[in-house]
Amino acid sequence: MQRMVRAALAAGLSWQVALFLPPQLAEYAYYAPLGAVIAVHPTIADSASAAWRSILAILLGFALAVGVYEVTRVVPNALTIALIVGLAIVVEQWRMLREQASWVSFAAVLMLTVGTSDPAEYAVRYAGLTLLGAVIGVLVTTALFPPLQLTTAVNRIARTRETLAAHLESMAAALRSGQLPAPHEWENRGEALDVALEQMRRAETQVERARRANPRAHRWQGAAGSIRDQSRALDRVAVLVDDLTTLVVEFQPHRRGLDRVDDGTGWVLADALDGLAGVVRLPFHDAADQPDDRDAAIAAAVAASNRLTALLRNSEIADDEGFFALGAVTVGMHRSLQTLEAHVRFPAAA
Fold first, then answer.
1. Which residue among 140, 150, 222, 228 is buried most deeply as judged by most CB within 10 Å?
2. Which residues span the membrane (predicted)?
3. Which domain range does residue 270 map to?
């Protein structure tokens, strides 16, 4: 809705401004709204980027069309058009043009069909008025204080937390039941987590882009920084969880002669995974001076991880592969807790 309002306002303003130009330009005022629409994006950085890249692509297309047309006058028009389009597609591979690359071939064909009688004049009209509209589009985007996309990013992070925690709990339940799915089945289960992670990364990137040249950025610097830290921490934990999931599913250390404490390795692993899931779900403390739910989750996770460490230290190595897999899982658990800054704030009295 906000982009719609900005685009509509920018298009109307650019049209009106173009009408005040000299008659030879005002006659083509409809090019200005085109530039305005091109330049209106959710962030100021994206608006400015789209504006100058589009104009550059248009000018490249014009120059290519004029150059090829002049040297192929004796060639049939069909061959001239084919050559221009082919070369334009090659130019569009220039990475600097990004999403605006397709304007090269469009502008080249446009120049060839309607602008060859006076290329310079047509380029000034089309590119000049489009640039005018693009500038107005960027100014409107800046003046209307584009949002920092914080709400979307917060929701994406919350969804990723829930999906990651559910993944850990699902693996813990499988360990307790003794029925771990095959590796390819775990890969299918991980698709939802992959989607959530990708959406979270995109949302974080959008927040970072929205902060550039945004007059509101300083007011929400703390919130934006928190989003960045949470997103990257969850990303790192997800990588660790993916590794330990692979180790448990493929090597199954809980079934390889390592049961030496209480209910067995499977239950110890399950408790550790459930503990980590609890910390993933609770990213913040409610109070600074007294224990809260996050403290309880951290205490449970640390206790379960320590129990897993003790199991590893006290195990009689019956299977090297299983032992090393269990060791890697244990390290992954502790690294995950460190990444989530899961520190015990109020140690129990001795």
1. 140
2. 50-69, 74-94, 129-148
3. 161-339
CA proximity to 192, closest of 168, 160, 169, 170: 160
Residue 136 sits in the same domain as residue 209: no
CA triplet 270, 192, 297: central angle to 5 degrees? 35
pLDDT tens string 20-79 = 999 988 999 999 999 999 999 888 888 889 999 999 999 999 999 999 988 888 787 888
Reduced to 3 states, what is the DSSP secondary structure of residue 164?
helix
In a domain, 154, yes or no: no
Q: Quote helix, strand, coil % in the chain, to nearest 5.
A: 80, 0, 20
Any residues with CB less than 8 A from the CB of 304 and at least 6 apart, and which? 268, 271, 272, 274, 275
Structure confidence by residue, pLDDT tens digits, 214-247: 666 566 677 778 888 999 999 999 999 888 888 8
For 222, counting Cβ atoms within 10 Å of its Cβ (0-12 exposed, 13-18 middle, 19+ buried), the class is: exposed
Number of structural domains (the chain) is 2
